[in-house]
Automatic annotation (TrEMBL):
Catalytic activity: alpha-D-glucose 6-phosphate = beta-D-glucose 6-phosphate
MF-aspect GO terms: carbohydrate binding; glucose-6-phosphate 1-epimerase activity
Organism annotation: Aromatoleum tolulyticum
UniProt-recorded name of the protein: Putative glucose-6-phosphate 1-epimerase
EC number assigned by the record: 5.1.3.15
Alphabetized PANTHER family for the sequence: APOSPORY-ASSOCIATED PROTEIN C-RELATED (PTHR11122), GLUCOSE-6-PHOSPHATE 1-EPIMERASE (PTHR11122:SF13)
Class in the EC hierarchy, top level: isomerase
Entry similarity comment: Belongs to the glucose-6-phosphate 1-epimerase family.
GO cellular component, one term: cytoplasm
InterPro entries in the record: Aldose_1/G6P_1-epimerase, G6P_1-epimerase, Gal_mutarotase_sf_dom, GH-type_carb-bd
CDD domains: D-hex-6-P-epi_like
Location of the active site: 155, 257
Record GO biological process: carbohydrate metabolic process
């Protein structure tokens, strides 16, 4: 039986359910073009979706892989994390093969986005489930007549069994901006990143793949086009202040995000840019 793509109702919102012959599954919400679930073959859920997430069609959904564009976090004058995660997308392509499923969701400017960010653009998110791999690709095209610049991220919430026991490898020697410590620039000198307190770091110029060790589960994390890696966990106090997170939610999630945060990406009229994050169940 080949892979399938079905339109489903996911907590009251339209979504696409992807499934492969080998048993991989994913759910992508049309609202925000947001991946909400990914289960590799013979495995368990690898993305964290808050059980208190709001699914009202207007609020950002806490968890999965929100798309941040054209602004990451509060690095500018636009709404935090930009304008896509709280807007509906349209299905541009669906394709299946013997053991893969692919969907592409599209955003373009509207009167509402123009009032916030007056630019002509096309932003497409392509999600591919193939074996034990999830590829998420963001492509941005400047369809206007003047240059624009943006920051962006795939705000990936990874599910971990216990965040204090998780180990993230591959960031040794990189400089990072520590937003949990007054935006100081620091250098990572440890063999692994261990989360034992509030963590909010933007690592710069990361070119090598990362490995997340979570008990007997390993996850490879690769990025292309995105120069930065964000590592975030709100920890106990900040998590308790989030209405759409359970009090202990921080213990079961770790955000490892492909990002273009330190320097803006500049596109001339007619130019496009592509960034990708790949998660590989090992």
């Amino acid at each position: 039986m080949p892979a399938t793509i079905e339109t489903i109702d996911f907590h009251g919102q339209p979504a696409l359910a992807l499934a492969t012959q080998a048993g991989a599954r994913a759910v992508v919400s049309l609202f925000g073009a947001q991946v909400l679930s990914w289960i590799p073959p013979g495995s368990e859920e690898r993305l964290y979706l808050s059980p208190a997430a709001v699914n009202d069609g207007s609020s950002a959904i806490r968890g999965g892989i929100p798309v941040c564009f054209p602004q990451f976090a509060g690095l500018g004058k636009l709404p935090k994390h930009g304008i896509l995660r709280t807007r509906p997308s349209v299905v541009n392509e669906q394709r299946t093969g013997d053991d893969y499923a692919l969907v592409t969701l599209r955003f373009t400017e509207t009167d509402e986005t123009w009032a916030i960010w007056p630019q002509n653009f096309v932003a497409e998110l392509t999600v591919v489930v193939d074996g034990g791999r999830l590829d998420v690709e963001l492509e941005v095209e400047n369809t206007g007549h003047a240059p624009f610049a943006f920051t962006a991220a795939l705000h990936t919430y990874l599910r971990v069994r216990e965040v204090e026991n998780a180990r993230l490898e591959g960031l040794y020697g990189h400089n990072y901006r520590d937003s949990a410590d007054h935006d100081r620039i620091k250098r990572d000198s440890g063999d692994v990143v261990v989360v034992e307190d509030e963590t909010d770091r933007v690592y710069h110029d990361v070119k090598r793949p990362l490995l997340l060790r979570d008990g007997n589960r390993n996850l490879g994390i690769n990025a292309e086009g995105f120069p930065d890696v964000v590592v975030w966990n709100p920890w106990e106090e900040r998590c308790a202040a989030l209405a759409d997170m359970p009090a202990n939610g921080f213990r079961h999630m770790l955000c490892v995000e492909a990002a273009a945060a330190r320097q803006r990406i500049e596109l001339d009229a007619g130019e496009s840019w592509v960034g990708r994050q790949s998660l590989i169940a090992l």
